[in-house]
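Hi support team,

I submitted a single chain yesterday and got back a structure, but I'm not sure I'm reading the token output correctly. Could someone confirm the output below corresponds to the sequence I sent? I've pasted both exactly as they appear in my results page.

Thanks,
R.
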Amino acid sequence: MNLHQYRLKKQRIAEEQIDELYRQAFEYALKETNIREKVRAKMIFADRFHMKEPSLVSKKAEDVFHQWFLFDYKTIKGQTLFFQFLQSQKFSEPVKMIGALLLTAAPEPLLVTGIQSGEREILITGKNIIHVKEESVKTSISGRSEEIRPGSTYFVRKVPLVTDQWLIGPVFEAAGSDFPGKIKEDYHLKNHENGVLWRTFLKEEAPSYILKGDSPPVHGHRL
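Hi R., thanks for writing in. Yes, this is the structure output for that exact sequence:
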């Protein structure tokens, strides 16, 4: 058996599984969560990130809220909705493992340096601002509507699968020309003050760096 082909096949299966898991979880958050929890989440989000509740100002703010609501918001029970979704379903072991990876994934800032389009996928390469290292992440072409351009920094939520990292959910451009230095300075300060780890810091603070300015979309490479 060709080991390389086997790994590629496993990667494809994992990609399909995690995309379907994300789709189901997103639907769960929108349709299965009670109104009281949604109202509480919107109030916390609006207060924390200085938005005008309940409209949250713009579609971009709404999209950021939905991602935060699913993955990073802590419910009255002290759990994320994605965790509650995983607990509410019976999944196979491989899907449970993928769910565990996504459970801990944080929106990470990636300074995009290149984009390559394939037949089914797009490969995005760039520099991770927090880890200060080169990284790449893949995403499926189908179902993507965002625009992205080299030279700009985007928050991406990604998980390592068999051969490649895979992008989950939409990407959001970081606001402000001083962003790279600002987020590193903020993180090191918080880490020094209370020992917060990078993953927790990004889960808690990423929306504030996305929503500053809330500028109109740019024209670039469409995902």
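A quick pointer for reading it: The CA atoms of residues 188 and 198 lie 9 Å apart. Let us know if anything else looks off.

Best,
Support desk
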